[in-house]
Amino acid sequence: MSDDFNMSMRKFLKQVGVTSQQAIEEAMRNVHGTEGRTFDAKVVLTIDGLDLEHVVTGKISGMGDA
Fold first, then answer.
1. Domain interval for residue 43
2. What DSSP element (H or E) covers 23?
3. Which of 1, 33, 39, 47 is deepest in the core (most CB within 10 A)?
4. d(CA 35, CA 42)
5. Is residue 13 part of a domain?
6. What pLDDT is stored for residue 65 in this prediction?
7. What is the pLDDT of residue 63?
């Protein structure tokens, strides 16, 4: 794979990771009583023109009220 491809993919994945973490943390802060709870999470990645739909599922533990 080309260097341009690798750099663009890494940049995209970094943006996905950072912005997703920020969104999850904000959502957790806005809901009281998440400590001790587990939330089902799902990410759906699609790429137009490649007929790609990739689904990642997992669980996220709640955080204590700050």
1. 3-61
2. helix 3-30
3. 39
4. 20
5. yes
6. 60
7. 83
Whole-angstrom Cα distance, residue 15 to residue 27?
A: 18
In a domain, 43, yes or no: yes
Residue pointed to by tokens 């663009």: 8
H-run or E-run covering 47: strand 38-47
Contact present, 55 and 43 (Cβ < 8 Å): yes
Per residue of the chain (66 residues), give pLDDT as tens. 899 999 999 999 999 999 999 999 999 999 988 999 999 999 999 999 999 999 999 999 998 665
- Spatial separation of the C-alpha atoms in residues 34 and 24, rounded to whole Å: 12
Cα atoms in the 13 Å half-sphere on the side-chain side of 59: 4
Domain assignment of residue 32, yes or no:
yes
Kindly state the tokens that stand for 11: 């940049």
Note whether residue 21 is domain-resident: yes
